Amino acid sequence: MLRGLYDWTMEKAAHPRAEWWLALIAFVESSFFPIPPHPLLGLMCLAEPRKAIRFALICTGASVLGALFGYAIGYFLYEAVGEALLAALGLTEAFPRAACYLREYDVEVIVIAGATPVPFKLLTITAGFIEMALVPFILASIVGRGLIFMSVGVLFRLFGAPIKRFIDKYLPHVTTAFVLLVIGGFLALTLLDRGEGEVADRCESATIESLDI
Question: 44 and which of 13, 24, 31, 49 could share a cystine (Cβ 3.0–4.6 Å)?
């Protein structure tokens, strides 16, 4: 099944409209869509390594625009839209903790979330809700999203064919590594405050009622 899905996605990644699909998925994933653009970006880069950096730029730009949309949802429409979105995505319980960590660590949390395959939408909506300064939010989003997407683009541009052969041969192992990377992203967020137990205790026990907005 995994191999069939991989082959099907490879075919779609080379579709003439693939760039539009990539931009759309990157945009909506930053604000409300549950499926990340990372797999499609990687497979498009596999299909056409010479366009890898172009694909990465598209993905980065669309994702940052989507982050602004997520910020707007949190800032203007949290009660009307954002709350229901987070509930549908299973992120309601994580929301007050994310708000607490964002207040404590500001751009660091956005950069880490943007550079790892964690639910970036949680941080974008939360940033709007707590009224995080917009310019630092945008810059942190560019850095975080750029780190992960441009790294993929550069690697595939330089080593496209060898990487494709490796993935073709070790697809299950690559999938496992991606899952571990997701878990590592969550751990990075929770360990930001190592050595500051008071902050950790406060954020881990945060509730929506405790958020003084």
Answer: 13
Domain of 171? 2-210
Name the band, by pLDDT with cuts 50, 70 and 90, for residue 74. Answer: very high
pLDDT of residue 62: 97
Handedness of CA 187, 190, 193, 198 (dihedral sign): negative
The span from the first CA to the last CA of the chain, in angstroms, equals 47
Distance CA 18, CA 65 (A): 19
Given CA atoms 136, 139, 143, 146 in this order, what sign does their dihedral have? positive
Tokens standing for 106? 């500001």
Amino acid at 54: R
- Site of tokens 């494709």: 164
Average pLDDT over residues 80-108: 88
Per-residue pLDDT, averaged over 137-158, amounts to 89
